[in-house]
Amino acid sequence: METQVLRSLARVSPAKRAADGSDMEGPGGGHRKRSRRISREKELDSFAIDGEDSDSDLDDIFLDPSVDPATLCPWCDEPLPPNPTPHLTSLIEGARRRSYPDDRPTNPLGLRAAPMVFVSVCQRHRFERVWIPRARKRGWPTSIDWGRLRGRIERLKGELKAIIDDIDEDFVPESEYSTTTNKQERAQCRPRKENEFWQDVVKNVRQQGSRQTTGVRGQFLHFNKTQPGYYGELGYMIIHQTLCDFFPPASFDPIAALPLTPADFIAHVLVPEAALNLIMEDLDLPRGDALKTLRDSVEYGVAMFPVDEGENG
């Protein structure tokens, strides 16, 4: 990802521009113009910004007088979002402390530094300038009250406990499965077996085995199906920790999570289930539409609410 962004941040210096347009001596001492071969194909960053979304133009070497340089990125000279998030503001301040002034025709307030100092800033402001407006159109939040999240999850304890208690007899030896519950009663109310996330687990376990399903490769393959949608990395951390507090893995019945471990059951079933209920509440959506939103907004959530967002407000 960083390599792509570094390419997209490449700038042609004024000196090089002059060389590109300079006269060349031709046969017989005459002069001819060397053709300029500047590619119009621009590298897009990891969020697939459309060509029309990028305001960079390699042919513009002077700042438009109508543009306030304070509204430009000090490093790549592209427009900053009108209302940067606290996370972006924090990234800018951190990079600014490691940069030095670079008054240039395209930005009199420009700064210069090693690319690794500012690449995360440019990734972030491009994301915010393009994707936050798109997210707003879809109704996805650009800020979340993290302080209320634990209380909201606590109200879901009853529903989540029902999923834990609905042991899937398909993965439990008959001798270990309790027969105290009437089979007819179990057939009428199966919160786990009817749960989309558990159904995904069962499908993957039957195809790949439980170890591969919960291993690194399995987590990569099924990433979108186990994440909390637009709640992102920070939301995942809070939801997961809250669920572990409410349902400590050590307190699980030995057969309750089979064929998963209790820790994997929380991560693969309870976390996305809790997030789904939160999204239904946020956007007033039926379960099916909320499930689509959960999966469509995963990448947005990961970028919008990284774990270190909590440190920056």
How much strand content do the residues show? under 5%
Number of domains: 2
Number of strands: 4
Count of DSSP H/I helices = 15
Encode the helix/strand succession as letters: HHEEHEEHHHHHHHHHHHH
What does the model show?
This protein has 313 residues and is mainly alpha-helical. The protein has two domains: 2-138, no CATH class; 147-311, no CATH class. Helices cover 49% and strands 3% of the residues. The chain has helices spanning 2-8, 14-20, 86-96, 115-138, 149-154, 157-165, 183-188, 196-208, 210-214, 216-221, 223-226, 232-246, 262-283, 287-296, 298-304; strands spanning 23-25, 31-33, 100-101, 111-112. Strands 1-2 form a two-stranded antiparallel ribbon. Helix 3 runs antiparallel to helix 4 and helix 12 (232-246) crosses helix 13. The chain starts with a helix and ends in a 9-residue tail after the last helix. It comes from Trametes coccinea (strain BRFM310).
Could you write a compact summary of the structure shown?
By secondary structure, the protein is mostly helical.
